[in-house]
Amino acid sequence: MSFPIRVCAVCSEEFELKPDKPGFANRCPACSESENDDSTKKKTMDADERKSLTEANEARRRAMRDLLYRKDS
Q: What is the pTM of this model?
């Protein structure tokens, strides 16, 4: 059984679209691998960064709550 031939949207090369291929159906395996590698890298945060991010999120939530539920007098 032959697989359908597709043209990669990134590099314009032909490839066979096989079942259970990782990535997008319109990208060749080489182009899909490079994107998957970029997305797996995670930036680690230390305690100070997490605390400042938590405080900023809480301030945003408080501001939105105050804007949404304030009583107009």
A: 0.42
Determine the Cα–Cα distance for residues 28 and 26; give it in Å rounded to an integer.
7
CA 57 to chain centre: 20
Distances (CA, A) of 53 to 2, 17, 40, 48, 58: 52, 42, 22, 9, 9
Q: Does some domain include residue 10? A: yes
Res 41: pLDDT: 60
Residue 33 lies in a domain: yes
The C-alpha atoms of residue 30 and residue 27 are separated, in whole angstroms, by: 8
Stretches in the chain below the pLDDT threshold 70? 1, 34-42, 73
What 3-state DSSP class applies to 22?
Answer: coil
